[in-house]
Please model this.
Amino acid sequence: MPGLGRYPLRSPVVWEQPEGPPAGRVAYAAAHVVADPLRDNTPGAPAALDWAATLGFRRHLWSYGLRVAEAMDTAQRNNGLDWAATRELIRRTAELARDFGDPAELVACGAGTDHLPEARTLPAIEAAYREQIATVQEAGAGVIIMASRQLAAVARTPSDYHAVYGKLLAEVDRPVILHWLGEMFDPQLAGYWGARDVAAATASFLELIHANAARIDGVKVSLLDEDHEIRLRAALPPGVRVYTGDDFNYPSLIASGSHALLGIFDAIAPAAAAALHALDQAETETVGSGRAADLAKYHEIFGPTVALSRKIFEAPTYHYKTGIVFLAWLNGHQPAFTMVNGAQSARSLPHLAEVFRLADQAGLLTDPDLAAYRMRALLAVHGR
Model:
C-alpha cells in the first residue's frame, strides 16, 4: 500500500506548560468533540459525546494558555454535531471555564442557524441566529457569529447580509467575532457576503464591519489566502482584530500581526504555546540580536507544524477534522478513534500514516510508545 513502511520515531519532546497566556496575541484553539465509542455515532444519528474526554481536552488547551473556540466547525458543526449536543457543549464548557477564569475571556462559542435548516426567509434566519446567540450569552461565553448555510442560500445581495448581521450586532451584549468561512471548508458557503468574487465580497464585509465596529471584537478569516488576509487586516477599523483561520500560513500571519483562531491549534497546542511565548519575548526585546534569536526560535518551533497542518487540511479540506481527532487519540486524550457522524472514515490509511509521521517530526507525539501502539492497532485493523 503506498505511503506505508517502517518508520523510526524520534525522541519525545518535552513541552513546558507556560505560566499564563501569550501577551502579544489573543490565541484560540478551535476544539474538537470526543464521540462516545460505545454509543451510536453512525452517519445521521444524533451526536453522542464522551463528556469526560471532551471536557478534559478543554482543560488541556487552557493548561497551555490558549483560549477555546467552542462549537465551531472543528467540533463538527454542520457535520454531525446537532443542536441538542451543541447547546449542552456550550453550557458545559462555559461552566468548566469558571475553574480557570472568566468564561467570557476563555471561551468564545459559535452561534449559527444550523438547528433550523428549514429557515428560508431573512426574518426566520434572524430568529435562528438570535436563539443561538442567546444560548451563548446566557452561558457567559463570548459569541462568534458563524457563517450560515441558510443565509447563503437565501441572500441575494450584500444588503441582505447587512440587514441580518446589522440587526444581530445591534442586540449583542458585548463585542463579538464574525466568522468568514471559505467554501473550501464548506462548499455551501460559496458567495458569502453577497458575491462569489473575493474582492467584491471583501468590500461588502468591510462595509458591514466599519458600520458596526464598536460591536465587533474581531473577524475570523478562513480563506487560506495569506495576501488577502494582510490586505483585510490593514483595512479594518482600529481595535478590530483579525483572528487568522489560515491553517496553511499561520506562522507568518501571526508574526506580522494577526491573532489566532485555528483548528490546527487543537492538535499542536504545546508547540503553539511555546512559539507564541517566544514571539512575546521577541516583541519585548530591545536588543537586535536577542530579538532575532527569539524570532528564530518562534519559527523553529512552528516550522515543522506547518507541514503537519497542510497535510491535515489538504483537499478535501472539510475532512480535516479526522486528522485532528486522530492525533488526539494517538496522544491519549481520548480512548478511541471514533467521531460523530462516522467521520473517522473520511481519510485514508496512507493519509493518517503521513499525519503520524509529520506529528512525530514536529515533536507532537507526547507519548511515542502509546502513539506507536495505537498506530499499530490501526494498521492491524486495516490488514497491515
User: Anything to note?
Assistant: The chain is about 50% helix and 10% strand.
